[in-house]
Specification:
2 domains, alpha/beta, 39% helix, Immunoglobulin-like, four-stranded antiparallel β-sheet, five-stranded parallel β-sheet, 13 strands
Length: 347
């Protein structure tokens, strides 16, 4: 999906959206305030986009004015979303409620930490979580949004793929690290929960690129690490590769590139370029520094959703060489970064 808001003159807003299928006429959900919204089908012909071949007919533009929305200029919290995806295209900046900053939070976790995300996103106008599930064009459009002064993006896409764009658009970057074996244990427990409990089925969207995890836990009502390891050994090499060293791949590799030992140095170099790097064992310090970086008063207290079984599953997985090999590079990156953070905090 591609989109742009060309202008917001108060009494007039214009822009456009092209969906992945360029023949579709997009619809826009316009949220004027907490109680008032309307849905507008593309109502402006964009001949420029038709000529470029981006849209089949050019019927993909949006024009909001006082005739369509009386009092348009007075809606300080106006937000526009694309209907089918729910992706925010534009939200007016409110300096009394939103920070004038752009933040990209790289997070290798598969299980969405809603308490953490919500504590941060409440201070931003445009917020996008788990963006790795979006197509490349969509992530670029989200990141490059020229009308967004206050934007929070979260997920585990490839840092090398977007690093130049982040620098160009003056994003602050942050990353919160955790023990890679602990993360793998949590991924398995989360996949098991989602596969067993129907009400959690919509959370399958959090497993973009990690669908093979469901093969490892299917039919295991009580997660048995030994049974999981047996299934790991039986995986096709291509499938197993999707689970190997996810932290190193996020920090140092382009999509579909396999992590090798030299990537650990690249990952650490890239981490050194981040504005803020933390580890879960020092979460309060991370939160304090994040508040200072964003120049905001206290964020809501950041806590985590955690499975009580995670430490037990982690320790059981640690006994198996095949699992240790799957996170060997991640352990090198994590151990080095955690040691550096510990030394910095202890003086």
């Amino acid at each position: 999906m591609q989109f742009t808001i060309d202008q917001d003159l108060g009494h007039l807003i214009t822009g456009w959206t092209v969906l992945d299928n360029p023949a579709i006429v997009p619809q826009f959900q316009v949220m004027l305030d907490e109680d008032t919204e309307l849905v507008v089908e593309a109502n402006s012909q964009r001949e420029d986009l038709r000529v470029l071949g981006w849209h089949t007919t050019g019927q993909c533009g949006l024009k909001l004015d006082e005739k369509l929305v009386p009092g348009l200029a007075g809606y300080a919290s106006l937000e526009i979303r694309e209907v089918t995806s729910g992706i925010t295209i534009y939200r007016r900046f409110d300096g009394t409620r939103q920070v004038d900053s752009k933040l990209f939070f790289f997070d290798c976790s598969a299980m969405p930490q809603l308490r953490l995300i919500n504590a941060i996103r409440g201070r931003f106008g445009h917020t996008y979580a788990n963006v790795e599930r979006f197509a490349y064009d969509t992530i670029v459009n989200i990141t490059f949004n020229i009308q967004a002064r206050s934007i929070f993006i979260h997920g585990r896409p490839s840092f090398p793929r977007y690093s130049s764009l982040l620098r160009e658009r003056q994003y602050k970057t942050t990353c919160l690290l955790r023990d890679p074996l602990e993360e793998f244990a949590e991924r398995l427990l989360f996949a098991s929960l989602v596969s067993r409990v129907p009400k959690f089925a919509p959370l399958r969207r959090c497993f973009s690129g990690l669908e093979v995890l469901f093969e490892l836990v299917q039919g295991l009502p009580d997660l048995d690490p030994d049974a999981v390891v047996a299934r790991i050994k039986a995986l096709a090499p291509r499938d197993r590769a999707t689970l190997v060293n996810p932290l190193t791949k996020m920090l140092a590799c382009n999509p579909d590139e396999s992590a090798i030992r030299s990537h650990t140095a690249t990952a650490l170099d890239n981490l050194a370029s981040f504005d803020l790097v933390g580890i879960r064992s020092h979460l309060p310090v991370f939160q304090d520094l994040l508040e200072q970086m964003l120049d905001v008063s206290a964020l809501d207290s950041i806590t985590f959703h955690e499975f009580t079984e995670t430490p037990e599953v982690r320790d059981a997985l640690r006994k198996h060489a095949v699992v240790r090999e799957m996170v060997d590079l991640d352990m090198l990156v994590y151990d080095y970064a955690a040691k550096a953070i510990d030394e910095a905090l202890t003086g």
